[in-house]
Batch of 2 targets.
Target 1
Amino acid sequence: MAMFILISGILSVLHVAYLNPVFSPEDEFHFKTWMAENGKTYDLREYYHRLHIFTQNRRRILEHNADRPSYTMGLNQFSDLTFAEFKKAFLLHEPQNCSATTGGHPRQAGPYPDYVDWRTRGDYVTPVKTQGHCGSCWTFSTTGCLESVTAIATGKLLELSEQQLIDCAQDFNNHGCFGGLPSQAFEYIKYRGGLMTEDGYPYKGHDSTCKFQPEQAAAYVKDVVNITRYDEMGMLDAVARLNPVSFAYEVTADFVHYKDGIYSSTKCKNTTETVNHAVLAVGYGEQDGTLYWIVKNSWGTSWGRDGYFLIERGRNMCGLAACSSYPLPLV
Ligand SMILES: *[C@@H]1O[C@H](CO)[C@@H](O)[C@H](O)[C@H]1NC(C)=O
Ligand SMILES: *[C@@H]1O[C@H](CO)[C@@H](O)[C@H](O)[C@H]1NC(C)=O
Ligand SMILES: *[C@@H]1O[C@H](CO)[C@@H](O)[C@H](O)[C@H]1NC(C)=O
């Protein structure tokens, strides 16, 4: 037994020395700490593979943070993944039909408040949720927006079902864990008789058969309002006067480890063709001359600023104004 431990100890040292000469004991210490904090375990082979990826991610985070950035990065539950793996598990894969999202939002002429946050205007925003290994961001953007518009209209904040959208909204160009768009999900809810609650139709995070029971619907859509493509002022008008707004944008590798501050990137593109993630704008503001949106994500509360992020506003950053919409609730 002792011999075995000794040999496997030597083997793992050799493994490090020959295959991955880049780790220091300090790197391994950080990895093991992160593993414990995130409840991760691997077999030996996977351990070195993940240590390698983790170490690269960690160095990148340290480099980024050392450079007085507009936003900081940090370790999170995704730190043992390459961006290719992250993309495959969590983002929209193929271009969605954003360009079908034509205008309809009636914009008024300001003036607008400098700062808006629907989380503090009243009980209008539900807690941050977690999508898990499923490209279902579009369902969380959809429920988040409908939860808020319904609460603003009725005074009652309910949590609504993402799983119903994953299982049932295919006829409107949605594809469950393989993607979709909030505007198309609002259309589904409008034409198919409403959306059940989270408790009534709980989240599973994988594709399944539709079990919608119309008599148990808890929220309804009277109409879908699309904001004109690239009209970021239209989004501002809607968020300032009416309610939170669903939007899509392009996530690139640097975004995955966002921790705090105002995100801005030169790597992402800004058109309808490249958007790969949908989220919810719940407010906006300005800090030291930089305008920003306050955005609710669906990657749990340990990610970013308690599950939220700030992203630069006013420049169609990462295509965030390519494809935004909100529903009018039927109450
Ligand atoms: C876009 O719309 C077309 C026509 O409705 C449809 O065939 C196609 O599957 C849609 N693409 C996606 C990704 O939903
Ligand atoms: C809103 O956009 C969706 C597609 O994203 C489209 O199907 C729908 O017709 C649009 N609605 C309006 C009122 O333009
Ligand atoms: C995208 O970015 C380019 C380069 O900054 C700019 O010229 C273009 O107007 C932007 N397009 C949109 C739709 O925002």
Target 2
Amino acid sequence: MSRIWTKTTFPLNTGATIPAIGLGTWQSKPNQVREAVRVALQKGYRHIDTALAYGNEAEVGQGIRDSGVPREEIWITTKLDNTWHKRVEEGIESSLKSLGVDYVDLYLMHWPSSTDPDDLSKHLPDWDFIATWAEMQKLPASGRVKNIGVSNFGIRNLEKLLSDPRTKTVPAVNQIELHPNCPSPKLLQYCKEKGIHCTAYSCLGSTDSPLAKDQTLKALAEKKGWSAAQVLLLWGLQRGTSVIPKSVTPERIEANFELDGKSLSEEEMKQLDSLPDRFKVCGDAWLPIKVFFGDDE
Ligand SMILES: NC(=O)c1ccc[n+]([C@@H]2O[C@H](COP(=O)([O-])OP(=O)(O)OC[C@H]3O[C@@H](n4cnc5c(N)ncnc54)[C@H](OP(=O)(O)O)[C@@H]3O)[C@@H](O)[C@H]2O)c1
């Protein structure tokens, strides 16, 4: 499966196509992300992932403008924050204003939790993510949002969303944590059956990744003559998921995009599929409700 990954896109159920490789921006420190976005776009990235909750949309917008790459060539994803579920219209307007753009390509519900803005330990008593989705469904008609999707939805919450009569639009994307220590094969299969594309977040295992110590990964990267990050990104891409590695280090931003013509054999994919360790970077303990019910659920 040797491909020109930097030009590869994955089709969505809306007819749009999402670039396979994007730049993540969570935890990028102030004054770092503007430069990271510029470097990435000038290197050839055409997909940037941000969120209202990251507090960096304005800087991401500046980086986009610094790059000189025309807006229409770039895929921008941003996300509705948990405490904004009752304020979808305000949420998208805030993101567009911060980013300095007229539209985003993808607007995601960041988490299936309608958190009380006045008390983060509480879920709103009179609202849930189905009601949020009903509001989000109205957005594409205005042209300010090209595609809508969800994030951090396991099978249980997707079932709930898709079976509700208020749901008229199947999410185009489910952005979820995916790496060899959190592979969620059943969730991927479920999304495939429903026509929902999956984007892999924390695809390198995130900050101080435990995967850096994995001996199977290390040996495989050495054998191929590639970095461990490149191996992890290929594993994600070959599973049909888009990947959004975050880096603020120019050399890493560049190396993470040097994947063209590289591929893992079926045997090598299987080796990574069968790593025994399991961890999740983003659990649900900090939310007022439980949203994960096991690896895929
Ligand atoms: N929807 C959600 O709830 C959600 C949750 C988490 C993440 N996300 C999105 O997914 C993106 C990616 O996830 P993530 O930020 O958790 O983690 P990640 O992309 O898996 O890993 C980022 C970490 O890896 C380092 N790194 C990057 N390239 C490297 C390389 N070639 N070699 C060695 N280290 C490398 C980065 O360091 P430096 O930056 O210092 O180079 C950073 O510490 C986020 O930024 C965000 O956009 C979404």
